[in-house]
Every structure is written in structure tokens, then in C-alpha cells.
Specification:
The chain has two domains: about 230 residues, 3-Layer(aba) Sandwich (Rossmann fold), CATH 3.40.50.300; about 110 residues, Nucleic acid-binding proteins (OB fold (Dihydrolipoamide Acetyltransferase, E2P), Beta Barrel), CATH 2.40.50. It is about 20% helix and about 40% strand. Bound molecules: adenosine-5'-triphosphate. This is ABC transporter ATP-binding protein.
């Protein structure tokens, strides 16, 4: 029995349609919904949770139809845990009372045991149970929010950008702890994020959403290595998309010169996706590649991304080690390392 089955789901607000006939199958584990701001990720979670009424389609949670039957099942009876953005703990309740909040009446008698078990699952010190949310760090608050969602033992947990307010290192650590807790609780999860690193590192399945539709639903390695659509490549791999032409099997030509190809090899017009780490930028005139001019540089410490305008006017983004970063306005040579992904059309 799958944890979540969505078929032909449509939903929106008034006359604005947001979700466009979505299908999604979540057998178990963590599925990340990855997409840019406004594409419909939160609307999808809200439709599954029961806070947005879909206009078409069906939703089954743990084998039970909750949308599309004679009557939609109300949110509180769907058996779903929900972790909203920034946790949304009740500020006037202690950690223990926050965690026990959603328990059905019958289980409230052993609330202390349930709270202790939920805190153990999310790897929080039981000593924190009597604290109030403002006495916790951001990462601890997120774990309490997950403990609250897990306490009624849902088959499915929905997490809406749960780590967005945390700083980078805490984000990674909290993300891993949350996934461990979900696995220990044997709960499937749908995690909404716009951060591809988070999606690729935490999820078993990644669903890439653009304008209310899934362009690809697959395991993280497939989404990264064999994107089904140029927009998936651009979004996931920070790839630059360039128009070009397939000249022969495995060979193509574009603003970066002659390139070796993977993917579409039918001669004719094509689009090429070149990942930022595939581009080498050198300030040396005699270096291999095509000429360009540096537009801007973002320095990240371990490396930097460099936007370069090529002689043809097209722009590409390269990632370069921190010790060889040119400056905006520098004339450079840009070369491609390895195969470029080709898409027909
Ligand atoms: N209550 C609402 N009424 C009308 N339109 C809405 C409402 N909520 C969201 N929208 C619109 O629906 C679209 C999808 O919004 P949604 O919040 O699902 O996107 P998202 O992918 O979760 O974005 P973000 O990453 O910024 O949270 C957007 O165009 C948004 O403006």
C-alpha cells in the first residue's frame, strides 16, 4: 500500500488555476517537491492536507481515498502530520503540551509516554519538555514541530520548507535528523523545498515542479544526471541553456564551440545544458575555449560562480575554485570539460 497516490489533481484560488493535472506516487520514504517560488508547492501540500479544495482529481493517503470520493475527508481525519513553514509552535504552551496537542482523546492519558517517545525520535533531550518555544534554538523548534506532527503516528507527514529559517550548517544537521526521525517512525514524507541541495541530499524521490506541473519525478541521481527536460537541468544543476545544433552522433555546435554530447543525438536544432562545474574560465588568451567577458562574480569561500558574456552575446555561468577568480570586466577564455546534455528542439 502506497503512502500517497495523487491522480489528475487540479487546484487553484478563484479563477487562478495553480496545479495542472498532477500525478504523484509516494510508496514510502521521503519525496522532495522541488521548484521555484510561486510554482505551486505549498498549494499541493495544502490540497493533500485538506486546507485547499481541489477542483479535479483524486488523492489517496495510506490506501484510503480522501479526495475525489463521494465526500472529501476533512483535514483532521486524514491521518496526516503537517509541519508548516517555521514550525508554528504555540508560544504559550510548553514543548510537552505542544507535542501532545494533536493527540486523539484516547491517547491523551499516556501523553507523557507519547511525548517522551516523540522527543526521542527527533533526538531532543527529554529535559527540554517543560521549556517554552522561545527558550529553544531554531533547529530545536523545528524538531519539536516534527515531534508534534509524528506524535499521533501518521502514515504521512507533510513538511513545508521546514528548514528555511535556519542557517546553512544547522539546516543540514536538522535536515538529516528530521529524515532519521521519519524513518524511525516509519512515516513517509513529502518535503517542499526550493533548495536543490536539500532535495538531492535528503530525499529518496525528487519531483521537480514548474508552473503547477511535474517535469520529472525520479530518484535524486537520475534527476541530476539524466534530466528529462532542459528546465530540470537548468534548475537542478545550475546549468546554462544554449541553443545549438547536433552535427553528428554525439557531437554538437553552440556558442561554446564544438562540444561532445550526451542525450539527443539526432542531427538538427537542439538545446544544450552546460553545468556550471563543466565550464573552465581562464584569464590566459592562449588557453583553450571561446572568448568572453566576465559580467559578475559571486564568491562563496570554497568556490565562486562567474557569469560570462560570450562573444555571441549569450551568457553562461561557471563555477571555479576560489584561488583563480577573475574580476568583473576581465577578458577570459571559456572551455567545456566533458559531455554536454543535448535536448531535441
Ligand atoms: N490564498 C491565495 N489566494 C490567491 N492566490 C494564491 C493564494 N496562495 C497562493 N496563491 C498563488 O498561487 C500560486 C502558487 O502559490 P504557492 O504558495 O503554492 O507557491 P510555492 O511554490 O509554494 O511558492 P513559495 O516557494 O514562494 O512558497 C502563486 O502564484 C501564488 O501567488
Amino acid at each position: 500500500m502506497s503512502a500517497l497516490e495523487i491522480r489528475g489533481l487540479e487546484a487553484g484560488y478563484g479563477r487562478t488555476s495553480v496545479l495542472q493535472r498532477l500525478d504523484l506516487h509516494v510508496e514510502s520514504g521521503v519525496t522532495a517537491i522541488l521548484g521555484s517560488s510561486g510554482c505551486g508547492k505549498t498549494t499541493l501540500l495544502r490540497a493533500v492536507a485538506g486546507f485547499v479544495e481541489p477542483t479535479a482529481g483524486t488523492i489517496e493517503v495510506a490506501g484510503r481515498q480522501v479526495v475525489g470520493g463521494p465526500r472529501n475527508v476533512p483535514a483532521r481525519h486524514r491521518g496526516i502530520g503537517y509541519v508548516p513553514q517555521e514550525g508554528a509552535l504555540f508560544p504559550h504552551l510548553s514543548v510537552a503540551r505542544n507535542v501532545a496537542f494533536g493527540l486523539p482523546r484516547a491517547r491523551r492519558r499516556d501523553a507523557a509516554t507519547v511525548v517522551a517517545e516523540a522527543l526521542r525520535l527527533v533526538e531532543l533531550d527529554p529535559g527540554l519538555a517543560e521549556r517554552y518555544p522561545h527558550e529553544l534554538s531554531g533547529g530545536q523548534q523545528q524538531r519539536v514541530a516534527l515531534a508534534r506532527a509524528l506524535a499521533p503516528r501518521p502514515a504521512l507527514v507533510l513538511l513545508d520548507e521546514p528548514f528555511s529559517s535556519l542557517d546553512a550548517s544547522l539546516r543540514e544537521e536538522t535536515g538529516r535528523a528530521v529524515v532519521r526521525a521519519l524513518r524511525a517512525a516509519d512515516a513517509a514524507a513529502v518535503l517542499v523545498t526550493h533548495d536543490q541541495g536539500e532535495a538531492l541530499s535528503l530525499a529518496d524521490q525528487v519531483a521537480v515542479m514548474v508552473e503547477g506541473q511535474f517535469l520529472q519525478v525520479a530518484d535524486p541521481a537520475s534527476v541530476y544526471l539524466t534530466p528529462a527536460d532542459p528546465r530540470v537541468a537548468a534548475f537542478i544543476g545550475h546549468a546554462s541553456l544554449l541553443p545549438g545544433e547536433v552535427t553528428a552522433a554525439g557531437r554538437g555546435r553552440c556558442a561554446l564551440g564544438e562540444v561532445a554530447l550526451r542525450g539527443s543525438t539526432t542531427p538538427g536544432p537542439a538545446r544544450f545544458a552546460v553545468r556550471s562545474e563543466q565550464l573552465q574560465v581562464r584569464a590566459d588568451d592562449a588557453a583553450d575555449g571561446v572568448p568572453g567577458e566576465v559580467v559578475d562574480v559571486s564568491f562563496f569561500g570554497h568556490d565562486a560562480t562567474i557569469r560570462v558574456r560570450l562573444a555571441t552575446g549569450e551568457q553562461v555561468t561557471a563555477r571555479t575554485p576560489a584561488d583563480s577568480v577573475p574580476a568583473a570586466g576581465d577578458k577570459v577564455q571559456v572551455a567545456v570539460v566533458g559531455d554536454v546534455l543535448g535536448f531535441a528542439g
